[in-house]
């Protein structure tokens, strides 16, 4: 009797989870796109609510060549010799794991073996119901391995060649206790000015106005979503300033984001060292 009751409860729970979780179906319209993820790390993930079921699909178009991801040239050592592997086609990519998710959340992949072919479409679903222990901001990384086709050797694992997995950083999941409207709750809102000067070569400043004292998360990412700056800002009531040192960064377009537990604002800045 007890076993029968336990089986019934587990079966009912399984049906509930399956009913909540929508199938992760790759977006066919992305097949002709270049390598990318949607939403990307600039748009980022929607805010999650405490004790409310959350589900978000990340659509993926896998790269066709190594150069689409790592740039060209990109050299690794093969049999003791440097080889530019940027033009080589990618055979497949495996999602090894997702780091930083709230402990009560899980992932569901369009391919059950977590392996996606090169130049193909795929998707990953993040789902679960955040608890009170998960309130706050969670920095999320996608951990991946890839296999490339080398004519002389055959299929080669990047992990075996580089000794480490590649990561896609920059995703952020904010878990908050209730839905907040900036217009209705001004004490949780803030405004961010465009960095000045912009464009700039080495140093710039960002001013923001906060309606309360507290911690803010500040980050800078490049077009690939790679984090270049990541720190906590202790804001005062009123006007605040963030100084950015870009002396170690190359020319290009970058995005800076300032967020608290309720609001996230992202703006673009340009580094020009010519």
CATH architectural type of the largest domain = Sandwich
H-E string: HEEEHEEEEEEEEHEEEEEEEE
Q: What would you call the structural class?
A: mainly beta
- Round the Cα radius of gyration to an integer and report it: 22 Å
**Main beta sheet, described?**
6 strands, mixed
Mean pLDDT: 80
Strand content: over 45%
Distance, first to last CA: 78 Å
CATH class of the largest domain: Mainly Beta
In DSSP terms (H or I, runs of 4 or more residues), the helix count works out at 3
Give me the count of strands: 19
What's the CATH superfamily of the largest domain, by name?
Immunoglobulins
Helical amount = 10-25%
Total number of distinct structural domains: 2
Question: At the third CATH level, what is the topology name of the largest domain?
Answer: Immunoglobulin-like
> Rough shape?
globular
The low-confidence runs, each spanning 5 or more residues with pLDDT under 50, are 1-20, 179-187
């Amino acid at each position: 009797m007890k076993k029968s009751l336990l089986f019934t409860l587990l079966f009912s729970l399984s049906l509930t989870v399956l009913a909540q979780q929508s199938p992760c179906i790759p977006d066919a319209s992305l097949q002709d796109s270049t390598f990318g993820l949607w939403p990307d790390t600039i748009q980022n993930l929607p805010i999650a609510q405490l004790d409310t079921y959350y589900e978000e699909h990340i659509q993926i178009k896998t790269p066709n060549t190594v150069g689409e991801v790592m740039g060209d040239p990109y050299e690794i050592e093969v049999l003791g010799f440097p080889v530019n592997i940027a033009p080589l086609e990618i055979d497949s990519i495996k999602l090894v794991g997702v780091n930083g998710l709230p402990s009560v959340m899980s992932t569901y992949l369009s391919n059950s073996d977590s392996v996606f072919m090169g130049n193909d479409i795929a998707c990953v679903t993040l789902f679960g119901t955040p608890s009170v222990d998960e309130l706050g901001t969670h920095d999320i990384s996608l951990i991946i391995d890839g296999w490339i086709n080398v004519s002389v050797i055959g299929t080669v694992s990047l992990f075996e060649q580089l000794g480490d997995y590649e990561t896609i950083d920059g995703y952020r999941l904010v878990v908050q206790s209730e839905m907040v409207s900036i217009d209705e709750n001004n004490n949780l809102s803030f405004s961010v000015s465009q960095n000045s000067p912009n464009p700039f070569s080495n140093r710039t400043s960002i001013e923001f106005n906060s309606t309360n004292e507290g911690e803010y998360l500040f980050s800078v990412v490049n077009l690939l979503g790679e984090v270049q700056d990541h720190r906590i800002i202790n804001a005062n009531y009123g006007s605040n300033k963030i100084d950015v040192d870009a002396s170690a960064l190359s020319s290009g377009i970058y995005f800076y984001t300032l967020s608290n537990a309720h609001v996230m604002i992202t703006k673009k800045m340009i580094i020009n060292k010519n």
